[in-house]
Amino acid sequence: MSEAETKRVLRLGLTGGIGSGKSTVAKLWLAQDPGIALIDADHISRGLTAPGGAAMPEVARLFGVDMVAADGGLDREAMRRAVFAEPAVRGQLETLLHPLIGQAIKAEVEEKIRQGAQRLLFDIPLLVEGKARWLTQLDAVVVVDCQPETQIQRVMQRSGLDRQAVENILAAQASRSQRRACADVVIYNDPLSWAELTQQISDLAAHFRL
Ligand code: ADP
């Protein structure tokens, strides 16, 4: 596929803190716009270390077979222990995964375009944290925003984690102002009813279809 062919497609980034409603917005958007395809960065990234994942031979070589679970995927608990004992291990894993994620995303983009996608919605939880890498590749960034207290309540309800655990996750993520500074469009998903949220996404999808 030529570069010109892949460049004609509109690329939208979608991001938001945990519990902001980013996945919900992505689902609503896909339902509103048949010409848009989802590129789910987390899903792609997890697939690399799933059983049979492209990163697994290198994981075994670099970190040892102790990091490989019985099913052939990454032993996430063993990796957590290794990172706890030696924080530099996290960086080594990221260095290994980074180029593979880039390749896998590129392959998926080409596949979606081959299948006829006219627009791509990149669901990227850490878009703002990795903005140097992402912003140049995107035509516009949509941020789903809400009050931290709303995020905490939603995530506690969804995951069963306690307040402190959720607050720790929030503290490790980009702040609201850092996220909004990268945004071309902000969806403020706090007091919104489903009908209002659906309407906003419908308007946004129509805007980007033009
Ligand atoms: P994220 O992908 O940002 O972590 P989700 O889209 O999974 O967040 O949403 C977190 C939870 O909040 C889900 O249970 C979702 O159904 C709920 N939610 C999202 N937006 C709203 C809203 N406007 N009103 C009520 N609940 C919402």
Listed once per kind, the bound small molecules are: adenosine-5'-diphosphate
Assess the beta-strand content as a share of residues. Answer: 5-15%
CATH class wording? Alpha Beta
Q: At the third CATH level, what is the topology name? A: Rossmann fold
Sheet bearing the most strands, described? 5 strands, parallel
Helix content: 55-70%
Query: Pairing-aware structural class of the strands and helices?
Result: alpha/beta
Total E-strand runs:
5
What do the pLDDT scores average to? 94
Instruction: Note the overall shape.
Output: globular
Order of strands side by side in the largest beta sheet? 2-3-1-4-5
Which secondary structure elements does this structure contain, and how are they paired or packed?
Layout: H1 3-7, E1 10-16, H2 22-32, E2 36-40, H3 41-48, H4 56-63, H5 76-85, H6 88-114, E3 119-123, H7 131-134, E4 140-145, H8 148-159, H9 163-172, H10 176-181, E5 185-188, H11 194-209
Parallel strand pairs: 1-3, 1-4, 2-3, 4-5
Residues 16, 18-24, 154, 158, 189, 192, 197 line the site of adenosine-5'-diphosphate.
Describe the structure.
It is a single chain. Strands 2-3-1-4-5 form a five-stranded parallel sheet, with helices on both faces. It has eleven helices and five strands. The radius of gyration is 18 Å and the shape is globular. Helix 3 packs across helix 6 and helix 8 crosses helix 9. By secondary structure, the protein is α/β, with parallel strands linked by helices. The mean pLDDT is 94. The longest helix is centred in the middle third of the chain and has 27 residues. It has one domain: Rossmann fold.
